[in-house]
Amino acid sequence: MSAPENQAPEHGSESGAGVAEKGDGQGFLVVEDLHAGYGAVRVLHGVSLRVDEGDICAILGPNGAGKTTLLRALCGMLRGQGTVRLGGVPLTGRPPDAVARRGVAHVPEGRGTFMPLTVEENLRLGAYARRDRAGVQADLERVYGHFPVLKERVKQAAGSLSGGEQQMLAIGRALMSRPRLLLLDEPSLGLAPMVTRELFGIVRSINQEERTTVVVVEQNAHLALDIAAQAHVLESGRIVLSGSAAEIRADEQVAQAYLGYRI
Ligand SMILES: Nc1ncnc2c1ncn2[C@@H]1O[C@H](COP(=O)(O)OP(=O)(O)OP(=O)(O)O)[C@@H](O)[C@H]1O
Ligand SMILES: [Mg+2]
Question: Pfam families recorded for this chain (predicted)?
């Protein structure tokens, strides 16, 4: 399980600078020739991809492909070589708190919620660096709007929540930092299909209502392709296939490898 990230972006004057608009052909998130790994273990071997602002992008691929490593490199937890830009601003080599201040929120594999703390305390942690009390309160209500079940459980310890509720809490905490880019690592992990479906529906409405750009790593390719505009297939640290969600869904190789049927 990844360590929880408790650094929330402040909303300083730099946060809106140089934002590339959707459809400008430049990409909002731009990743070029990214290499990353763990010490001598090299995992990503030159990953390149672009995500337009306001889009949902799915990263698919088998176990050990490097999906989690890619998200860790994007949020600054791992120092990579190559280019990562958000809204035209280079993020490569910046520490996680600086990347978070640029508007990147990471919901790690395993969620990273603080089990003994209450739901509300966990959510407030996502906003701990913010000084605008009224804004934080409004954002709490906004998160409860997306996840009404969290409102019913405000004073409950996170550890007493169901798996689905804990994933909602982790996403809610990320939203408390008002991210421009939300990185979700296997949100469906360990959840029942119905709960996963509900969760993905909420991710889609967050994306639509708040125009938050989302990169979602997911083994459940069906669900991810349902909500994504674009998708990339990662294998052994390299992107082996990229396209619109419809193109990827229609690809026979992907269908056989990840969707569990032949077309
Ligand atoms: N902390 C680490 N130290 C060394 N090697 C690691 C570490 N974490 C992951 N790896 C290795 O990096 C490779 C990619 O792992 P990663 O977790 O990014 O894959 P993944 O695509 O997210 O897989 P999964 O679908 O199982 O979550 C694997 O070979 C893994 O063993
Ligand atoms: Mg992973």
Answer: ABC_tran
| CA separation for the pair 127, 171 (Å, rounded) | 13
C-alpha–C-alpha distance, residues 189 and 208, integer Å: 23
| 87/120 same-domain check | no
Residue whose CB lies within 8 A of the most ligand 1 atoms, among 1, 35, 41, for a mutation test: 41
Q: How many angstroms separate the alpha carbon of residue 193 from the centre of ligand 1?
A: 25
Same domain? For 99 and 192 the reply is: yes
For ligand 1, atom 30, which residue shows the shortest CA distance?
64
User: Domain range spanning residue 138?
Assistant: 110-178
Task: Give the integer Cα–Cα distance in Å for 49 and 66.
Answer: 14
Tell me: do 207 and 226 sit in the same domain: yes
Domain endpoint, select from 122, 145, 178? 178
Tell me if 14 is assigned to some domain.
Answer: no
- pLDDT band for position 256 (cuts 50, 70, 90): confident
Tell me the pLDDT band of 84, cut-offs 50, 70 and 90.
Answer: very high
Q: Domain boundary at 178, 198, 219, which? A: 178
Q: Kindly report the pTM of this predicted structure.
A: 0.89
262 confidence band (pLDDT: 50, 70, 90): very low
Dihedral sign computed on CA atoms, order 182, 167, 207, 248: positive
Q: Which ligand is nearest to the CA of 74?
A: 1
Please give the distance, rounded to the nearest whole angstrom, from the Cα atom of residue 1 to the centre of ligand 2. 10
pLDDT of residue 258: 67
